[in-house]
Write a sequence for this structure.
């Protein structure tokens, strides 16, 4: 579960010899030991439980040099050797962060974040530059530009025009705040990593390296491969489960897609459609509990709630999304009479479960610890060793030897390097907004622009989230808007969890929406399909996700806020709405038949209206909204059913 949303990591990292890989492996092992020491308060390795900022500085000292060693300065730089300047940057990072570790207690006691000695200010400036360069290499040029502009903003904030004017600071104070406060480099993003994300990264990597990906794909084929449009439905299940391990849309596509896309092509689904299914399923995998992307953990920190609360809130929205995908695939298969694979080609359910039952057990243990015992920080540190022990005892094909263990450590090295490089850079953005007071100013300006209208603010939020999701990682886009936009939406009376989830969902949409559509384009490369055609197909298949965030932000019952009866009613209406919407997108309603263009338009209109609460978008109460929806949907279903029945009768007579 890495949430590396920018690009596929494959090919980005250097391939180095033992002289480099062993020190990096050692650093990774120390990171894991530090995390265990801090989580369980064991007092080993360092003889004490570290101060919060001291612990995070130690993580940075071990991980940021890895960024300079593994990620080249540019695409054209050597991928097989480490230039002297990268070694110098790594060594300088160790020295600078070593100084911060040694002085961490003094910083806290004397408030150095706003009144640091001159030497501390100069060293802070160096750390600022080092973190910026690490975030550029890890997150790409778009993120680097935003980090540079926003982190430097405190130096000239008072010179900006009214809406974006803030408090200015001299460079030495700004640098000190970035480096030594709990609001910037070692702020919310890195705290989420150090307290929660790191354990789930380890669990996800352990799942992958014990063969869980193959198990989930085989299980999906065994259960669904033989039914109508089976391989496409397999892609939904397999990619959804894999998303819980990788947390990355592109990584998910490149791992499950190589198996599911060829299977979809075998049953005569077009290449763009097959690639679009995989892209949509992989995108949904990152939104699906129990293990979501790193953004979900950061969301829990922002909202000051447990991660389990975020995971539970995501249950119904993720179900609605995957249900919409399933309906569209089934409708396409029914309308084109596309059958599944022959049972003789598929693995046995019984044998698959017998070979990999312990993966399900590991997930069940994790869910139990998360949801019932509420041990978010400790859950993966219990589930991972249990998984590894069972794998060594019961698995015949995936037992680890020296080679597998080293591959596992190497995977963690790259995951830690890329994610921490991004999160530390995002911390600079948060620090600048916090330091200057710009976040509060923009909240008031947004409210003024929207005229206090929640719907106008939601549309602004959706568009802004989508645009930022094109140029930034989802985590970066989410954090930026969680600071600036979320307070404005919450001030209009909306549920805080629903608002933050709304921003998260819309930030993900760039993966399946042209012109960027990284997830769709990655799937197109596997399917050998036209990228833009795949992007448009993915956009149509995943179209329900453009509306689901509006459903749950307007009706919090869909994120499990409210009584059981309210939740069940809202879930039922939303599910039926998704069924109608998805069927209309494919022009085929199961049990009814094919739909004409005007019938599809009416069905879509009724489906979008149905889940809405009363007096929000249209001045009608809930009963009137349901009546209006029924007027749009029921005549279409009845008329289309009778027409198709008559057509079938005429066909049978002739």
């Amino acid at each position: 579960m890495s949430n590396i949303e920018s690009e596929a990591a494959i090919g980005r990292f250097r391939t180095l010899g033992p002289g480099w890989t062993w020190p990096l492996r050692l650093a990774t092992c120390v990171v894991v030991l530090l995390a265990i020491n801090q989580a369980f308060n064991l007092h080993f390795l360092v003889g004490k439980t570290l101060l919060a900022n001291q612990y995070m500085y130690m993580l940075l000292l071990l991980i940021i040099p890895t960024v300079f060693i593994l990620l080249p300065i540019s695409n054209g730089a050597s991928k097989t050797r480490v230039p002297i300047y990268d070694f110098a940057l790594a060594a300088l990072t160790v020295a600078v962060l070593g100084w911060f570790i040694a002085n961490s207690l003094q910083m806290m006691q004397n408030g150095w974040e706003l009144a640091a000695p001159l030497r501390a200010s100069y060293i802070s400036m160096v750390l600022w530059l080092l973190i910026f360069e690490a975030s550029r290499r890890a997150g790409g040029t778009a993120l680097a530009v935003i980090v540079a502009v926003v982190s430097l903003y405190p130096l000239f904030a008072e010179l900006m025009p009214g809406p974006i004017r803030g408090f200015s600071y001299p460079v030495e104070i700004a640098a000190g705040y970035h480096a030594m406060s709990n609001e910037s480099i070692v702020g919310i993003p890195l705290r989420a990593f150090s307290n929660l994300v790191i354990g789930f990264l380890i669990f996800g990597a352990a799942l992958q390296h014990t063969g869980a990906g193959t198990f989930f794909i085989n299980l999906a084929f065994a259960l669904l491969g033989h039914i109508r449009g089976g391989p496409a439905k397999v892609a939904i299940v397999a990619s959804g489960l894999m998303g819980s391990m990788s947390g990355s849309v592109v990584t998910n596509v490149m791992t499950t897609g190589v198996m599911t896309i060829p299977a979809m092509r075998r049953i005569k689904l077009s290449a763009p459609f097959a690639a679009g299914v995989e892209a949509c399923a992989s995108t949904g995998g990152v939104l699906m509990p129990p293990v979501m992307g790193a953004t979900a953990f950061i969301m829990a920190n922002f909202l000051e709630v447990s991660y389990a609360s975020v995971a539970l809130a995501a249950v119904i929205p993720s179900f609605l999304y995957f249900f919409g995908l399933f309906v569209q695939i089934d409708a396409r298969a029914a309308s084109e009479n596309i059958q599944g694979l022959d049972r003789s080609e598929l693995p046995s359910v019984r044998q698959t479960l017998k070979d990999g039952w312990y993966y399900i057990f590991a997930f069940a243990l994790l869910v139990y610890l998360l949801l019932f015992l509420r041990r978010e920080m400790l859950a993966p540190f219990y589930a991972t060793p249990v998984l590894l022990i069972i794998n060594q005892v019961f698995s015949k094909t995936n037992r680890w030897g020296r080679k597998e263990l080293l591959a596992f450590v190497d995977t963690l090295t790259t995951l830690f390097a890329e994610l921490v490089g991004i999160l530390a850079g995002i911390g600079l953005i948060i620090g600048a907004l916090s330091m200057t007071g710009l976040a509060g100013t923009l909240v008031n300006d947004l409210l003024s622009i929207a005229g206090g209208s929640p719907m106008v603010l939601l549309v602004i939020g959706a568009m802004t989230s989508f645009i930022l999701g094109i140029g930034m990682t989802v985590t970066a886009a989410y954090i930026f808007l969680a600071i600036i936009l979320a307070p404005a939406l919450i001030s209009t009376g909306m549920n805080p969890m629903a608002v933050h989830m709304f921003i998260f969902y819309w930030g993900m949409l760039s993966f399946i929406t042209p012109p960027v559509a990284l997830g769709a384009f990655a799937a197109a490369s596997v399917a050998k399909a036209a990228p833009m055609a795949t992007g448009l197909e993915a956009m149509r298949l995943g179209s329900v996700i453009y509306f689901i965030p509006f459903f749950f932000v307007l009706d919090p019952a869909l994120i499990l806020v409210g009584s059981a009866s309210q939740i069940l009613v809202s879930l039922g209406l939303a599910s039926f709405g998704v069924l109608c919407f998805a069927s209309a997108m494919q022009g085929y309603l199961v049990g009814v038949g094919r739909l004409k263009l005007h019938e599809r338009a009416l069905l879509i209109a009724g489906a979008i209206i149905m889940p809405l609460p009363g007096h929000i978008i249209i001045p009608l109460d809930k009963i009137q909204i349901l009546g209006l929806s029924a007027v749009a949907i029921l005549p279409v279903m009845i008329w289309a059913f009778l027409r198709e029945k008559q057509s079938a009768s005429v066909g049978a007579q002739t």
